[in-house]
TrEMBL record:
A GO biological process held by the record: proteolysis
Keyword match Disulfide bond: yes
Molecular functions per Gene Ontology: serine-type endopeptidase activity
Protein name (Swiss-Prot/TrEMBL): Ovochymase 1
Domain Peptidase S1: 5-235, 272-504
Pfam families: Trypsin
Length: 506
């Protein structure tokens, strides 16, 4: 899925004075519309991965993004990002976010707000989308603001094209034969409709398939559906605080703040004077500090770990051989001997194409839960990285799990334990494991293996900008916690489009 100006033209400079460019660390990332001196509206999906306010600025009154500075422009830091609490990353419902600016914009002929369209949207109404996104599918973004006229389509027509996925909070616009559309980089940008006297904001660029394809029109967030939410937030700081809590529950890869502090050390393997092997620097984790960790259980016995990636989906190792309709996922668990927050039956187990090689190439399974997990301080999901996301020294990687191991002589095995892992590059790993290792694997210090740390299906999660991403699932390693053999994890980014396809369809 790509957020998706195709078939358009360069706009007259400053003819859309409410249009802004959202800059992520000074790179143009999304579009937005000014609705008051201190507020901009955009799409929630723009902030799915980077939701720290300090990373974002808005650029208003600009036409050519390649010009070093235009005299009419205003660049303002974002002080709050409030994504709609009902935003669903899978269905794309309620794909709207409000940005509060650090100081108000100065309105003039180049920078001005737009009112929200409040009456029903007539079918076949011609409206205009604007943005600096690509002018062809997967093409480079453009430097000067583009515009294209699109036609509002009926929800029935649109649902035919998109197999019933169009919700009441969305609408489609484009042409049946394609050729006009919004494209990557236009996300969150305005769809403006002319009332006869002025333009009003009807939609925000949300999603679609490809760019400008026949029978795949652009899908837009219907802004009027969210007017009450918008006005509550703009008028009432207390609501903003409550909304922040709801938003916090919905963010992936975030640790919840707690007073407990336990330092993470780099795992190592040492041999005592008596020749006894032990794993060092493994500690009990703070209760619920890794809220995406789940225990897979059969007859109330833990046999594997997994990670929650969405309120309906868990990732684990295929070799855990989970039984659908029999085994359960236990969430919000720290100590195996205490009652969990939630226990949910596994509804279905989906694995990539059957793979008979040994060791398995794609040792990964997706578990669909029979009901959605309730997210909160003790249960939340971890982010899945994009396919092209590479690990380098700027990331910190951690694994966690339960169970008795060489690592847990001084730790209660029924309590979740953790360790930071150093990564081993593919060349060095290949010298130890030969052709078994390829691009679909990540290698770590030997302590990461199940024989050392003790848990099959244990996730490897890595942190950048205070957000954790699921990079690996422990697959194999040495049988005897050999200090010479790196631990092997299935590389999750390799399967991110497969994960998206499976979880999107259901």
């Amino acid at each position: 899925m790509e957020t998706r100006i195709i078939g358009g033209q360069e706009a007259w400079a400053h003819s859309w004075p409410w249009q802004v460019s959202l800059q992520l660390s000074s790179m143009p990332a999304c579009g937005g519309a000014i609705i008051s001196p201190q507020w901009v509206v955009s799409a929630a999906h723009c902030f799915k991965r980077y939701n720290k306010e300090s990373l974002w600025k808005i650029l208003a009154g600009r036409h050519d993004l390649d010009k070093p500075q235009e005299p009419e422009e205003q660049l303002v830091q974002v002080s709050r990002i409030i994504s709609h609490h009902g935003y669903d990353t899978k269905t794309k419902e309620s794909d709207v976010a409000l940005l509060k600016l650090e100081h108000p914009l100065v309105f003039n002929e180049f920078v001005r707000p737009i009112n929200i369209w409040m009456t029903p949207l007539p079918e076949l109404l011609k409206c205009t989308i604007t943005g600096w996104g690509s002018t062809r599918e997967n093409g480079p973004r453009v430097n000067r603001l583009q515009e294209v006229n699109v036609t509002i389509l009926s929800s029935n027509t649109c649902n035919e094209y998109y197999n019933g996925r169009i919700r009441t909070s969305m609408f489609c616009a484009g042409k049946e034969e394609g050729g006009v559309d919004a494209c990557q980089g236009d996300s969150g940008g305005p769809l403006s409709c002319f009332t006869g006297t002025r333009h009003e904001l009807a939609g925000l660029v949300s999603w679609g398939v490809g760019c400008g394809r026949a029978k795949k029109p652009g899908v837009y967030t219907k802004v009027q559906q969210h007017v009450q939410w918008i006005s509550e937030i703009m008028n009432d700081e207390n609501t903003v605080f409550e909304d922040d809590l709801a938003e916090e529950e919905d963010r992936c890869g975030k640790q919840h703040l707690s007073s407990c502090e336990r330092t993470l050390g780099l795992a190592g393997i040492s041999v005592s004077q008596g020749g006894k092997l032990q794993v060092d620097n493994v500690t009990e984790s703070c209760p619920f500090s890794w809220p995406w960790m789940v225990s897979l259980q059969s007859n109330r016995r833990h046999y594997c770990s997994g990670a929650l990636i969405h309120h309906r989906w868990v990732v684990t190792a295929k070799h855990c051989s989970v039984s659908a309709k029999e085994d359960v996922v236990v969430l919000g668990l720290h100590d195996m001997n205490q009652k969990s927050v939630q226990t949910i039956l596994v509804d279905d187990v989906i694995s990539p194409m059957h793979d008979a090689s040994f060791p398995p190439q794609s040792d990964l399974s997706l578990l669909r839960l029979s009901v959605s997990a309730k997210l909160g301080p003790k249960v939340s999901s971890i982010c899945v990285p994009e396919e092209d996301e590479e690990l380098d020294d700027s990331w910190t990687c951690i694994t966690a799990g339960w169970g008795k191991t060489r690592a847990t002589e001084n730790i209660n095995p029924s309590k979740l334990h953790q360790a930071e892992l150093t990564l081993v590059n593919e060349t060095a790993c290949g010298q130890k494991w030969g052709d078994f290792v390829n691009d679909a694997h990540i290698c770590s210090h030997p302590a990461g293996s199940a024989s050392c740390l003790g848990d099959s299906g244990a996730p490897l999660f890595c942190r950048k900008h205070d957000t954790y991403f699921l990079f690996g699932v422990v697959t194999w390693g040495s049988w005897r916690c050999n200090a010479d053999k790196p631990a092997i994890f299935t590389r999750v980014p390799e399967y991110s489009s497969w994960i998206d396809d499976e979880t999107d369809d259901q």
